[in-house]
Amino acid sequence: MTAPSMNERERVLAVLRHQLPDRVPWVARLELWYNARVATGTLPERFRGWSLWDIDRELGIGVRLLAEVVKLETDGFETRTTTRGDETLTEYITPIGTVTSRQVYNEIMRVSGVTAPYLTEHIIKRPEDYDIAEYIFEHTRPVPCYENFQKIADQIGGDGFVLGGKIECPYQHWLLRLTGYETAFAHLHDCTERTERFLRALTDWTREVYRVMLDSPAEVILSGDNFDGTITHPKLFRRYCVPFFQEFTSELHKRGKWLASHIDGEPSPLLQVFTESGIDIAESFTPAPMTRAPLTEAQRIWGDRMLIWGGIPSVILCPSTADKDFERFADDLFSNAVPSGNLILGVGDNIVADAILDRVIRISQLVRERGNYGMERGQSFTSPTPRQGG
Amino acid sequence: MSILDTIQQCVIDGDAPQTKALVQQALDQNTAPASILRDALIPAMAEVGKRFEAGEYFVPEMLIAARAMKEGLAILKPKLLEAKVQPLGKFVVGTVKGDLHDIGKNLVAMMIEGAGFEVVDLGTDVAPDKFVAAVREQRPTIVGMSALLTTTMPGMKTTIDALKAAGMREQVKVMVGGAPVTEKFAAEIGADAFAPDASSAATRARAFAAPSA
What we know:
The complex is a heterodimer of chains A (390) and B (213).
Chain A: H1 8-16, E1 27-28, H2 31-40, H3 52-59, E2 62-68, E3 70-74, E4 78-84, E5 87-94, E6 97-104, H4 107-111, E7 118-121, H5 129-138, E8 140-144, H6 146-156, E9 160-165, H7 170-179, H8 181-190, H9 192-214, E10 220-223, H10 234-254, E11 258-262, E12 281-285, H11 295-302, E13 307-313, H12 323-340, E14 343-348, H13 357-370
Chain B: H1 3-13, H2 16-28, H3 33-53, H4 59-82, E1 90-96, H5 103-114, E2 118-126, H6 128-138, E3 142-146, H7 154-165, E4 173-177, H8 183-188, E5 193-194, H9 198-209
Parallel strand pairs in B: 1-2, 1-3, 3-4, 4-5
Helix pairs in contact in B: 1-2, 1-3, 1-4, 2-4, 3-4, 3-9, 4-5, 5-9, 6-7
């Protein structure tokens, strides 16, 4: 290939605008690997004292960052936290009652590079808790915090891409953060009217949060949805997610911006229905063998309507995958998926703690040597059609 | 439609109160507890699994059906014990050491219980010696291990090695699963089966129990 004529940020923007980049963008998250190596003192000698971003640059990976562009201000209730050992209990004390949540952060998580604690008890346990949750939202106000985004974007420059974000869509927020699967689906089945009324209230509140994100300097907003199509299946996605996304993306697209949704679970059942949502990017898309979705199948179904950011399942980089299987995967990736376009190459959802660094370097090498993005249908780029957001 | 067919349909539809009421009604009508289990509850969950594999049912429907099945089973259990009805086998399950992610494990436990097994759930963050102790005490047909983190996956091999060291590996089948786990990895660490989802786990468990069933 000829010398690169674009930086990583320009490549991402080119792909988003449906233009031909000089090669496939390669923008992956290395923070789990980095955090784990720092936590365990196992950062390779040559990287001792280096920042995450410096290592990204050295390895030839575009830096992928998420900057929160919204902060939440509360009044009218008290939040009390108590930590014992690995477990933290949070009490939300309101005038109409108290709800609690518990989360755990243990040593294994720390040495695995995980920074977010694991929720073991959600605040909504009984239908009665919806009243208290609604009160909490009514007394939580989203306010802009754009300075941080700009600061990070300036630091990264052309070496990567910064997404703006804060939370997931209302349905996923209810399911994952507030209620948990078993209780959530029991409520939806047993007390549908009350649950849906809460979801409408949550949607109204989330709309305010997204409005702040809309006005932010971020070109791409990340909705941290963690979709898994075996859980949020097509019927649920259509009923509870599509209307929200359509409303938000129509506003976003008017401003020339794009929406990415974090889809690191099983995507197969949702491949068709995603295209109804207005979502522009399937971020952290994780194909087989970690899910049932072959990357090229998603590319075929989505065509130009959705962009995939991901495509490399994290286990492919780990010792549990044999060298010859990694090479076979990489060859297939660069022979079939990369030339098909509509792809920002990344890892779903992270380069994990035990990833073999030589394999990451090998991907970077292949990106340089065989990253002939969209060449299979490259001629279509002679008259670039902007994506919805562009 | 017989009462057993109606119970079956109630489980498939996830109607827990009706399942519970009908199981009680069937018992009151002197239907054999074993028949309620084998001709209503187990086929219902098998149908749920079939629909999951066909892409007609998903996790929410599976959870709701399993809840209905459990409600019915709770009424049935004392009668099954009285009648000395043996489960299809015993399944010991847990997430491996350090791993707290229990959603997949819980689904597997529900579906395997629905397949007619007695389930001993060791919970999350289960050390190899705890799995070994459970195998020693419970004498299960199958041990199931789940992991979500690549850093905890090696705990599966460590547990298999611990079972070998304790001389118990041949007494039990080992089934593994979880997002980063692949069929190949399962074979490499010496597991007997890999289950990509809860429904497949139940199918494989039934296959293991088949010779003695």
